Structure prediction request, 615 residues.
Amino acid sequence: MSWISNVVPPKIRNFLAKREVPQNLWIKCPETGEMVFHRDLEANHFVIPNSGYHMRMNAQQRFTHFFDGGTWETIPVPEVPLDPLKFRDERRYTDRLRDARAKTGMNDAVIVGAGSVDNVPIVAAAHNFDFMGGSLGMAAGEAVVTGLMTARDRKRPFILFAASGGARMQEGVLSLMQLPRTTVAVEAFRETRLPYIVVLTNPTTGGVTASYAMLGDVHIAEPGALIGFAGPRVIEQTIREKLPEGFQKSEYLRDHGMVDLVVHRHQLRETVGRLCRLFGAEALPASQAVAVAEPVEA
Amino acid sequence: MPIYLDFEKPVADLQGKIQELRALGNDGDAVAINDEVARLETRASQALADIYGKLAPWQKTQVARHPDRPHFTDYAKKLIEEFTPLAGDRKFAEDAAITAGFGRFRGRPVAFLGHEKGNDTESRLRHNFGMARPEGYRKAVRIMEMADHFGLPVVALVDTAGAYPGIDAEARGQAEAIARSTETCLKLGVPNVAVIIGEGGSGGAVAIATANKVLMLEHSVYTVASPEASASILWHDSSRAQDAATNMKITAQDLQKFGVIDRIIDEPVGGAHRSPDEAIRATGDAIEESLGALDNLPAEEVRRQRREKYLAIGRTL
Prediction:
């Protein structure tokens, strides 16, 4: 934001902020500085063509690029009490929520959808990091519970896309209670004997990894994602030394036995579909298969 | 010399005067001095009751962390006969931040585990200030699974600022260890009871505090992240811990209102550290009643009740 954000009232500021998006056509690779045209990047599933850097995707983009045909049925999530702590710091929590909703078009940080991937019918949930850092509050917890319970009731595999800084501080201990609550749902889902696959994306830390995101039957990580319990800043402050190169990255977690596979985004659909079939999920008959747009290299 | 917290200054001042008078007592007017001492003692205990009757959340945090507050080992000594701590996670190491084992609680064998913070420099280092590594949680899982196997109830005492945030802990899967421990709590076919005796910090607490009945001592706190960590996350400034404690509803009284805990255990006037035996006895009574209410339930029912309880949390407030 420029100097103008300091002098114009919020409503006009929002209007100005929105106009920034269409101008933002070139995306810079955070690793190499390479510039990529936004449309090419999207066609390549938000992977920078030369460096292979996996850019963050929001939840809708995630579903669009994951489900067959880019279509899914939205599973509604029950309402939860709003702002139970009446929390405010510099701003009211309710104001922050309103802004996040306006920015993302989502009710909260996790959406749930049903559809098929590689012709296997599944239920999936995805965190949106753009919604208050994908944080786990009561609404996100309820969404994960709803996703797992819907998958159980429909006897479908459950796929979780994690992207979260952890618990939502503004909901205090009620946010912490989402750890056991979601774990109850994981337990209930296991009775189906169908696979629960977690896809860890950049970044996934805190209460989300300390519960459902580390309880999958299979853990897949996207390349280069930050995954851990404590964030790097907290660890550095605790031990007062620099962290080793590659620490808490996907490949590090695989080498330390916490992640099964590090999978390039272009191979994700095929990998998930294959695993689901290996674990006994039924695929759709060929007559019902959906046409799929495969990534196009720029 | 007792350790006074900053907000206990009126009590400390009165106690100081009482000590001075007592010192004078040897060569002064004994009767007058005794009267004055008695008067001051009444005032001091009244001041203590007043202060502890309306502790602010940050003050409760200080009480919960008081170095003289009874810790896991004190409870084990007073409540558990034949306590036999068992070591190790059978995978990597023994972690003294969590003590876990078996013993007899008021006659019946139980699994007894919890965080131990230590009470002097040497023991605090040995117990890593009650901040467990993955091995601690994996040991807890092992002990809980043994309890399930042998049909014994599980009693867990929670007292940690949080799981240890270090390179080694991350390398060995801190998040996974916590998640598995929570999952194990939920799987148990035997009843479990958890008591927050001091600090219930974050996932490191939930990992063993997911129970059929969760009890909290009157001046303990239970938080999504320690006030320091919360302030660091919210404002990038850990020195604003007091603001975080005030805003985040961390006291036993708040948590009971939210339906997150089942029962508050009253502490002696002036906090558990002023009369540890009394606090430990009251905690024992509360554990006994909670376990009694869960006796003779079939395993499936124990699990169902626990699951339903957690799913219901927050749905109506």
In short: The CA atoms of residues 164 and 286 of chain A lie 37 Å apart. Residues 1-6, 15-21 of chain A have pLDDT under 50 and may be disordered.
